[in-house]
Amino acid sequence: MHIQPFLLFPALRHPASRSFALRLAAASILAMAAATAFSIANPWWAAMAVWMIGQPTRGLLLERSLMQCLGTLTGGLAAVGLTALTGGTPALLLTALCVWLGLCCGASNLLRHQRAYGAALCGLTTAVIVVLTAGTVLDTAAFAAARMLDNMIGVAASLLVIALWNPPSPATALLEKTRDRLCATLGHAARLLGPGQTPDTAPRARKLVAALAELETTAEDATAGSLSQRRRLKPMRGLLAGLLDLIAIMPALRQYALALAPDHAEDLDQLRASLDDLAETIQAGRGSSLAIVRTATRRLRGADPLFDTCLDEFEQALAAIAANYRNMAATLPEPSPSPTAAHPDLAGVRIAAWRGVAIPALAAGAWLASGWEPLRYLMLGACIFTALFASVDEPVPLMRRVLAGAAAAAVAAFAWRVGVAPIVPHPWLSLALVSPLILAAATAQAHRGTAFIGLAFNMLFAVLAQPVNTEPAEPMALLTVELMLLAGIACSYAAYRWLIPMTTLRRRRHLHRAIRAEVAAIAQRAGTPVRGARHLARLRFLILALIARSGTEAATADGALAALSLGHALARMGHLLDRRPDAPEAPWIGQALHAMSKPLATPHDAGATLRNYANRARAADISAAVPAAHWLEEAAEHLTEHTAFFRAQPARAWAQRVADLSSSHAREGRERA
Fold first, then answer.
1. Measured between alpha carbons, how far is 149 from 73 in angstroms, rounded to an integer?
2. Which of 92, 99, 206, 621 is the most buried (most CB within 10 A)?
């Protein structure tokens, strides 16, 4: 039967992927040859470094190379330090290794992008050095030095062969994408100020927020390798925060705009036209002046106190958007405070750290209890792949591909060491003969769908076949080592799949919990605007992270926007208390903030409590209390419409669908009314 090559190697379909595969294979062969020429121990490690840092763009490869060097250096020093502290006693040394690996796995979850890879590689390097030297005559310091040298050679080969011909990072495309998202959001805001019905408002808002989350997720990779481009990240995140605020503000602004007197219709039309003009001006690259928009908003001032409050937030969001866009588009962006603050998934950090301790500890316990030497390799496989996938949201599908590639590598390595290596007279000939196999695996690694299969094959084949080692191998000993390595990978897979799992759904639950905690923190510290703004910045970051993992899913996207609107409403109440602590409505605002500062086990009850405070404010018959009453009702509406999102214990899937359906019916009824 004839099989098309691109069915086995999808990278062959695209010229860029084929070119990258050739460069990857050439760099790994060059690295192994250089390490062999310099007589460095285990020269295949140099090729493994090439495969580990292989990236399709120059910027990503540069940053990953830096993390490879730092992670290897730190991990090697940690291995030497642990060995010295424990005196090389296997039980103490392996216990210390498990603790260190847990710390590295936790740090990998705490950091982002290539920095997470550096933390994982630090733990991996320490594990390789300690496991392979514990209880042997090998000198740990010399072993660590050889691994560092091999990695440096691999990095140098990658920079020489791959980086010089790799395409640059798409930094210019980042600015174009940001401009497109900005213009689309302004168009959405202008559309909401129109007089007619807008039935697709919610789906459009979800798509816009999903696009902002995708942009925030990919921005750091797009600016990788360039310090000048990295300076654009802060203003870009400030721009995304302003756009997110604008999307969250617009439903309330539309509601109050529709309630204005008919004689303000022309002014609203002018405001809508000014937003369209601003979007066209930005799209054409002619700047981002807000003069026309401010002229339109000035004519609407005084029409209604509630509308004025929303108009203040609207203008603040537009001012932040324009300032950050100008700074981002500048040749030399200026340092600026970021209105989004990274808030790590602390629950995920704890789980990753616990997994990093538990899995190696089980393997170490089996090895120490039995004293069977091959169990060293079971622990090695468990340590390596536990560290590598510590920060991945969905590691199980990737680990299945790793298992497939590792199994194929074990078969190929056994055939090579038993059937081919004994008849090859020279290491250089051995390296030449194995080159087509390395190229085939590099071709698999060059395609996203088969990347982990190709990477696992190359890595395991290099370790087991040792291409430049022509010494004969004992078949049973080699087979035992292969089985133990595969068993170690299987142990990591089982832990990620069943024992201590991590999935996107679980990560989303952690983010849900963190969002609810930040809403409560805003209520607690709303009286101190600086601290409240800090928690609002964290809330924006968490919302973008949640949307990035859920896309345009209706319940999650609507609930996330409601959480941001609720955070703004609470911050608004806190500003009122900070400015006018003796205001007539201050007692009800203070009680409402106190009620919201606690975990929301029952959002319906919290909403009823806020409505009760709003009614008390209205009953006081004080005109100044009317805006505060509306703010309380707005917060209560967010809570009751999205109970599944704000509930402390997530509802079952069917109950959540029923709650979302009833909320959508209630919202449609209010819109018709």
1. 10
2. 206
* d(C-alpha 275, C-alpha 285), whole Å: 15
* H, E, C per residue of 390-423: CCCCCHHHHHHHHHHHHHHHHHHHHHHHHHHHHH
| pLDDT over threshold 70, residue 621 | no
Tell me the DSSP string of 477-493: HHHHHHHHHHHHHHHHH
Alpha helix (H) ranges present in 193-304? 201-222, 227-230, 233-258, 265-283, 291-300
Q: What percent of the chain has pLDDT over 90?
A: 56
Span between the terminal Cα atoms of the chain, in Å: 67
> What is d(CA 358, CA 364) in angstroms, rounded to the nearest whole number?
10
Q: What confidence tens digit (pLDDT) does each residue in 324-336 have?
A: 999 888 877 776 6
Average the pLDDT over 182-193 and give the result.
Answer: 94
Among 596, 628, 627, smallest CA distance to 609 is for 596
Of the candidates 246, 436, 464, the one whose C-alpha atom is nearest the C-alpha of residue 339 is: 246
Question: What's the CA gap between 99 and 663, in Å, rounded?
Answer: 48
Helix, strand, or coil (residue 164)? coil
Q: Please check the confidence at residue 163 and state whether its pLDDT lies above 80.
A: no
Range name among 157-161, 240-244, 262-266, 620-624 with the lowest pLDDT average: 620-624
pLDDT of residue 667: 47
Q: Of 418, 458, 444, 480, which is closest to residue 45 (Cα–Cα)?
A: 458
C-alpha 579/C-alpha 476 separation (Å) is: 79
The SS3 of residue 105 is helix
Residue 302: how many other CB atoms lie within 10 Å = 9
* CA–CA distance, 178 with 355 (Å, rounded to integer): 38
If residue 318 lies in a helix (H) or strand (E), which one and from where to where?
helix 305-329
Average the pLDDT over 629-638 and give the result: 87
Of 50-59, 283-292, 561-570, 659-668, the least confident = 659-668
How far apart CA 450 and CA 143 sit, in angstroms, is 32
Write the DSSP symbol of residue 67. H
Most confident of 65-74, 164-173, 200-209, 606-615: 65-74
Residue (of 26, 39, 17, 45) closest to 158 by Cα position = 26
Spell out a b/e string for 184-223, using b for 16 or more CB atoms within 10 Å of the CB, else e. Answer: bbbbbbbbbbeeeeeeebbebbbbbbbbbbbbbbebbbbb
Question: In 3-state terms, the chain is what percent helix, strand and coil (to 5)?
Answer: 80, 0, 20
Evaluated on CA atoms 585, 587, 588, 592, the torsion sign reads positive
Q: Contact at 8 Å (CB) between 374 and 476?
A: no
CA 85 vs. chain centroid, Å, equals 36
Residue range 515-525: average pLDDT? 91
Query: Given a cut of 80, is residue 80 above it in pLDDT?
Result: yes
Contact partners, residue 126, CB within 8 Å, separation at least 6 = 75, 76, 78, 79, 82, 97, 100, 101, 104
In this prediction, residue 291 carries a pLDDT of: 87
Q: Which two tokens stand for residue 29?
A: 């062969």
Report the C-alpha gap between 579 and 567 in whole angstroms.
18
**Residue range 69-93: average pLDDT?**
96
Helical pair 44-53 and 58-86, crossing angle rounded to 10 deg:
130
Q: Please tell me the distance from the alpha carbon of residue 523 to that of residue 568, in angstroms, as a whole number.
A: 10
Six-digit token string for 3: 């099989």
Give the Cβ contact number of residue 631 at 10 Å.
Answer: 25
